[in-house]
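Notes continue from the previous slide.

Worked example: a multi-chain complex. Inputs as given:
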Amino acid sequence: MALLGLNMIATVITMRAPGMTWGRLPIFVWATVSTSVLMLLAAPVLISTLLMLALDRTAQTGFFNDQTGGSSYLYENLFWFFGHPEVYILAIPGMGILLEILPVFSRKPLWGYRLAVTGMLGIAILSFLVWQHHLFMSGINADLRPFYMLSTEIISLPTGFIFICALGTLWKGRIRATVPMLFSLAWLFNFLIGGLTGVFLSDVPSDVTTHGSFFSMAHFHYTIMGGLLFAFFAGIYYWVPKMTGYNFNERLGKVHFWIMFLAFNSTFGPLLVIGFLGMPRRVVTYAGYLQGANDWVSVSAFVLGGSMLIFLANIIWSQLFVRVPTGMNPWGSKSIEWQLPSPVPVHNFDRIPTFGSDPYPYGDDAGSNLAQRPIVAPARPTP
Ligand SMILES: [Cu+2]
């Protein structure tokens, strides 16, 4: 994971095409860079921690064993020094997918490009300063609590930048409710709930009561499943036709989206409430007054799982049997990958393309697939 991050960063620094300045990088590439920084710096900590743990178990060393002079608290710290950045290793690529898709289906340039880049890099840097919010209830030195409470709450700022950029892009746009767009809009709704409930968990007084409850579990699912997984599906519905050359069935995609979106909220929304009412995580039994709500959640969770079967059916139906050709640019995107045939030829371009503008030249009159300002400048003449 660390080497993959290093590879990505080195590739972006050294192998950009002519004209692809830092200010013209597609926002998903910025998301990849931010994620790669996290992978490069966080993964080695996990690897070393697991190595020490393995030595504790096999060679009876005493890193984390309280009986032999080690510290299990040290293990918690090292684990979460990796574990919190890991949350953003999952989340930031989702933000990149979101900000890549919104301009296409709003027919507007990405609003606040620099703000979005600042947001992603800001999240990446700040995510190394917040890990002890997982240890508020683990015997942390009480004097350390305010710092980690503040640093965690400050991370809402760069995350807020991403929301502002998303809303600014949507504002007065000509919205097309395609399947990738629906999943992207659902990201905004779910991740907002995930973010707002996170504030309660980063705040020490309210964390003392909500820690270890279904509230924190539901919060986690709103960020990772409601955020990442919905963006992941947006990316699949958006880019897989480019990879395979065949469209997904739009109607099945919409059925998948609506069942997944409603069932997701019907599962994890009530769990937020149940958690507040005092239901702990990882306990099979619970008070009788929570029975009805738990039944509701269980049924919703099965429906949520069932929605994946619709997705599976769509893959088999549209990619293996019906096979409607995608064409070069079905979404009318201005990004470079859509200026090539689907699927993309093995060596992509015959000649290295040069870039004359940013990747989002959507104007008010942009309705056709033809860019007013072509993103791909004429290839350099070969000598
Ligand atoms: Cu965390």
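Summary box: Residues 364-383 have pLDDT under 50 and may be disordered. Residues 1-176 form one domain.
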